[in-house]
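Schema walkthrough. Field components (list of strings):
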Amino acid sequence: MNAMNRPDAAPPPLLETRDLLIKFGGVTAADHVSMQIEAGKNLAIIGPNGAGKTTFLNICTGWLKPHKGKVFLEGEDITPLPPRKIVRRGVARAFQIPQLFTEHTALENLLISAAAREGLRNPLQNLHNISQRDEMMHLLDLVHCTDVADRVVVELSEGQRKLIDIAVALALKPRLLLMDEPTSGVASSQKHEVMEILVGALAEAGVTSVFVEHDMGIVERHADEVAVWNAGNVQLRGTPREILEHPDVIRDVIGEEVA
Amino acid sequence: MSDISQHSPSRGLVKSGSLPSMRALLTLLAVLLLAAVPFIAPSMQLLINLALAKGLAVLGVTILLRAGQVSFGHALFFGISAYAGAFLTASLPGADIVLVLIAGVLGAALSGLLVGLFVVRYRGIFFGMLNLAFSMIFWSILEKFYHITGGADGIRLTRPSVLGMALERDSFEAVIFYLSVVLMVGLGWFTLRWFASPVGQIFQTIKTNETRLEYLGLSPKRALLSGYLLSAMLCGVGGSLMAMTQGVVTPEYVWWVRSAEMVFIAVLGGAGSVRGAFIGALIYEIVRVYASAFAGDIWQMLLGGFLLVIILFAPGGIMGIADSLIGKGGKSRPTTTKEDAQ
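Field assembly_structure (string):
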């Protein structure tokens, strides 16, 4: 009997991976990764460079196909699906290097995202006149970018582009948002501000998030849960306090001598 | 290969202020002037009719330039449409002009879909050369199957009827001329609206970020195919008008030089510009006819030199020059979809 049909059975996790394996030449980037992501939390993924964090996001969104193992979204096997079909099921992605339409304005990037979400096909309707315009302006407000709405993306700072990239993903109204280093490229003095804005926007939109992060200050302050990646697998998982005080993490990830 | 599509005025620097309204006014004046040609310069009517037909085909190439793709084989759809019309009038003498046009555009759309399904998997030079390959395959078929296609001599397209009436040559030429003007205005307007629409904007993002497009839940191939189909149909309209104007179709319609000519005109007029497609075609045809009369064999060299100057000093093409002249003194800003809708 299908677990979904049992009234007493716990609902399947929002995202689940089972025994993921992927190798690039001699390097094992995902080494039998099995993990579950529950809805409603902000999960941070930390770990040294080359540990397989981004590869994990790429597999979960269908960009890379694992040699072995499966990915489930609320119990549905999404492993063979291309990214666009996974996106349509409610999984959005923001990138380490913002992936935006550089010749369009910030607002147009969001409007295109809304048009994609709604499947708008009227060839005579102006993009600027679609009914989702106010909603997109609100999203821009949410990420504190209203003042750059009409500026072409190439004119924006890296931090602004990061926020627009995330807003474009949020415009899809996802259930799960996967982000790769949301504060990289942002000035140190602005990182916490950017994350405050971001976490606030996610909470308002009711979106579960998974984000790869190298800044432990960000992780400590903004994550609900932390997974430590090492050599292509999850080494540890727990609350930020548990993880950041763990001797292995202090030694291998933070890079300090253990007292 | 130099990315000529990057000179698209859709995002190029234009001048703000009164530019859109001034542009609309000048467009209206140009259309009225064109409509008056049979009265004020009847000797130019045929030449301008051919330029308008070519301009519609160039508009097809222009659409692809907006997505950053250059096709060196779009004469394929120009030719397929022309031959579809010729075969129709051969088997159904006196077929109506609208029927000939529809048959041509359907032929172009169908072939555009078949070729498009294959070529949208490629980008850049591969996209351009695959289009060229398809057009040359069709050219070979036209040349070799002479018992069906008439070979290099081509086949005649007998004069279609107009709303059931068999017209004399002069009357028919007037009809086809005004039909060309109406189609130029109608399809030009539609293309501008399409560019500004969500589906047109999604098509244009192929030029800048296919990864994001995929992560918006869209297929870049399908997005490119939609524009490819539209571009093939526009080439089909141009080919059909050209065939009905000339009364004969030959393999020259799909010869690679014809495809290159379309790209040449698109860049000359302003790569990515709807108005530029027609202005470029008009200038090209006029220069070609008069330069070949007065400058013998060096007219191609003159045009080539002119194109070099355009690429080096005015990458926005003739429309870019016109925009900067009209908007002189205005503040520079990138255009948006708002301008596309003007």
